[in-house]
Amino acid sequence: MSDGYSVFRSGGSWFVRWSEWHNGKRTQPSHKLCSSRFPKSEAKALASDYMTNTVGKATTIEAGSSVKEFVVGSFFPKVKSTLSRHTTRLYRQAWDNLQPHLGGFRLRDVRVADVQSALDAIYRQRGDTISHGKYKHCKVTCSAIFSEALRLGHHPGPNPEDGTSVRNYGHNNHRPNEAYSLEEIKLFLTVIPTGPLAVSIALNAFLALREPEVRALTPDDFDGHHVRIYKHTKTGNDELLPVIGPLRRILAENPVWGPICLDSAAKVIKRRIKGTNLKWKGWYAFRRGMATNLYKLGVRPEEAALILRNTPEVVRRHYIRLEHTGTKSDAMHLLEQAYDHCAVTVQ
User: Fold this and answer.
1) Element (H, E) at 10
2) Model pTM?
3) How far is residue 200's CA from residue 207's CA, in Å, rounded to a whole number?
4) Side-chain-facing half-sphere of 126: CA atoms under 13 Å
């Protein structure tokens, strides 16, 4: 039974029997292999083939397995084959925090209180040294793990993550969602005028790409007038983006570049801008900068949304970042002036 199944003889035939779990209930299906006049060794060989090719028992998790065994043996292989490398890395980071407090539990026995206890233990250890978002991602990771276990019949349900809470856990001191102005972008490309770093900056500044789109680019995607984004990126785009003069010059001067690693490029850029009046605001500040700069130039959010390949509502809410130099009184004074100068005709 160490293989997860057993071979037995009954009624003049050899059978293979195995265990399955469905909604918390154990069943033991069996399958007839051959006549009992064949030796047991041949029946075992037939059983092995049947379990591997038909039942797929080799890929299941035994009922007594721990959470760690399930996560390592089943959850992460599934995640790696279906999700992006970035998402998989986030799951692994969350599991590194959860594993010491949850990994040793028998998978089928995990309850809401056990998951909550693990989250509480992480908070006692880490406190506010990590963000609230990290704690939320630990919750999301637990939900994903046990959702997969439920789908495979390895946990009786309901999902033990449901009902847990990380309210007020971790800090919310995030870097502000800033945007680069055209002056800042020009200063970046003055300090770093050429080379792979300049290519990375210019692609982000003048195309407002998402990280998966940047990582997927190669020099062959630039035809002299457009840069192409392919459907195999996480964002699912497949379109030609127009290239303006400053980006065209940088790409023409640097024909050999890529693949681009934004994390590595950011570390070098931070060192290069030390001693200047530039401030590193993160790569997404270039995308927000595109929306903000277009808006300042009179481009409507609906048109900017076409360039950023997003909805107008998202562009208005998350990308356009304007400095508030006036006051409420100034705004109401403008409204008053507009009303006074508004001409009407009574008919």
Assistant:
1) strand 5-10
2) 0.54
3) 11
4) 21
